């Protein structure tokens, strides 16, 4: 009797979940140019997965919280389009729809196809790093055409000393993406070393000051909230050793002085010497200044929802530029913070979801010291200029929820 090889035939449910996760791992890759910063393919796959979410054993609190966030977005969207065209507020609505549509397929794939998920994350993170290495050593525009209209920035970014973009529109997006990738990889494998390497690439390749700030904040919080300082120091020694080695390799292959590649260190030195001068840097001004204004305005409005009206924001933006003269510019899309822009738009309605995320984030206590750093750094990314519409963060959140749930097999490895 002839031998017949048996091939695993995935179900439609598994295929759709896999597509949602793959597109989330490459959120900026442009197949059809929609003119948007984050591409909609992961969201579309997530919407296709919606009929299957009712038998996904995600915890009840998360299901309610994600549904509540979507309800807030839909409600504010219909209020907004009562006075302006549909398209303007639509890009805001996407940020309320993406969490629910991505968390469920992420949770499902992590629970039922963990090995495949781990390989998927490993290969995708490796691709991001390899592209970044090629860009910083050989060809700055390598594969940059895949990010559509932002591809022209690749040469300028490298020449200006801002690192590389890899498969993202800008170095900060690349850096934040790799921080989240490091956390996802750690969660699906519990391999601290590779997770740390993926996260540190946000500094070594992207040369992102924002990424450095996120990692530093996560490290500071973990160091001040746990007692096993020796364990933390031991793992940090390994992490710093890898970082120093990669920097030395970069120094050997690159003409760093002519490329002025150390802009990130210039920013750090300026911050330590004369913090007030940081606001003269347009990038730092827009990010940190925008976050300050967002917090001030949320308090000033007493958590009254602003809504999703783009026209109202454009008017408010001009008022805020006059009210806070130290700000060089404010984005036409909103404040540069994922959490704060939702708190500004949703006001008191967004508070329950924020409290839910804080409560769930407390579960990082079950992980080791460096594991907590990796996970917390990913959670802190949307504090800065990272939109809820970017599916990679919600891919991470789905994996995180699965790993802290009762039915997870994570306990075998702890």
Number of domains: 1
Q: On the 0-100 scale, what is the average pLDDT?
A: 82
Helix content: 55-70%
Main beta-sheet strand count, sense and barrel state? none
Structure summary, number of beta strands: 0
Descriptive account of the structure:
This protein is mostly helical. The protein has one domain (12-405). Helix content is 65%, strand content 0%. It is built from 18 helices and no strands. Helix 3 (60-80) runs antiparallel to helix 4 (87-112), helix 7 crosses helix 17 (369-380) and helix 9 crosses helix 17.
Concise structural overview:
The protein is built from 18 helices and no strands. By secondary structure, it is an all-alpha fold. The longest helix is centred in the N-terminal third of the chain and has 26 residues.
Task: List the topology elements.
Blueprint: H1 12-25, H2 41-49, H3 60-80, H4 87-112, H5 114-137, H6 153-159, H7 171-189, H8 192-204, H9 209-225, H10 229-253, H11 256-259, H12 263-273, H13 282-300, H14 310-323, H15 338-346, H16 351-361, H17 369-380, H18 391-403
Helix pairs in contact: 1-2, 1-4, 1-18, 2-4, 3-4, 4-5, 4-18, 5-7, 7-8, 7-9, 7-17, 7-18, 8-10, 9-17, 13-15
């Amino acid at each position: 009797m002839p031998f017949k090889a048996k091939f695993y035939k995935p179900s439609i449910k598994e295929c759709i979940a896999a597509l949602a996760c793959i597109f989330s791992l490459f959120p900026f890759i442009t197949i059809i140019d929609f003119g948007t910063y984050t591409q909609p393919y992961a969201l579309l796959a997530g919407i296709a997965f919606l009929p299957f979410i009712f038998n996904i054993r995600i915890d009840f609190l998360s299901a309610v919280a994600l549904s509540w966030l979507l309800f807030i977005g839909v409600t504010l969207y219909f209020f907004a389009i009562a006075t302006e065209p549909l398209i303007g507020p639509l890009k805001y609505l996407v940020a309320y729809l993406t969490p629910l549509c991505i968390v469920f397929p992420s949770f499902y794939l992590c629970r039922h196809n963990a090995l495949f998920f781990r390989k998927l994350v490993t290969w995708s993170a490796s691709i991001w790093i390899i592209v970044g290495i090629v860009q910083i050593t050989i060809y700055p525009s390598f594969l940059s055409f895949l990010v559509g209209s932002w591809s022209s920035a690749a040469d300028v970014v490298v020449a200006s000393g801002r690192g590389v973009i890899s498969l993202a529109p800008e170095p900060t997006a690349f850096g934040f993406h790799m921080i989240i990738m490091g956390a996802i990889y750690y969660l699906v494998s519990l391999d601290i070393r590779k997770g740390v390497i993926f996260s540190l690439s946000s500094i070594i390749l992207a040369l992102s000051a924002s990424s450095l700030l996120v990692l530093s904040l996560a490290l500071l919080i973990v160091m001040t909230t746990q007692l096993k300082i020796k364990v933390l120091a031991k793992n940090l020694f390994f992490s710093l050793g890898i970082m120093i080695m990669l920097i030395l390799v970069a120094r050997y292959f690159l003409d760093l002085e002519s490329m002025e590649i150390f802009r990130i260190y210039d920013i750090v030195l300026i911050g330590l010497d004369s913090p007030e001068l940081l606001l003269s840097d347009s990038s730092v001004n827009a990010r940190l200044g925008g976050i300050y204004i967002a917090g001030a305005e949320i308090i000033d409005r007493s958590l009254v929802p602003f809504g999703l009206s783009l026209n109202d924001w454009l008017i408010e933006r001009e008022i805020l530029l006059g009210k806070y003269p130290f700000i060089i510019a404010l984005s036409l899309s909103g404040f540069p913070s994922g959490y704060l822009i939702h708190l500004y738009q949703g006001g008191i309605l967004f508070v329950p979801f924020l409290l839910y995320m804080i409560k769930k984030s407390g579960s990082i206590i079950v992980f080791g010291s460096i594991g907590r750093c990796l996970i917390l750094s990913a959670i802190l990314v949307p504090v800065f200029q990272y939109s809820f519409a970017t599916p990679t963060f919600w891919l991470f959140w789905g994996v995180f929820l699965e790993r802290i749930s009762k039915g997870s097999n994570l306990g075998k490895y702890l």
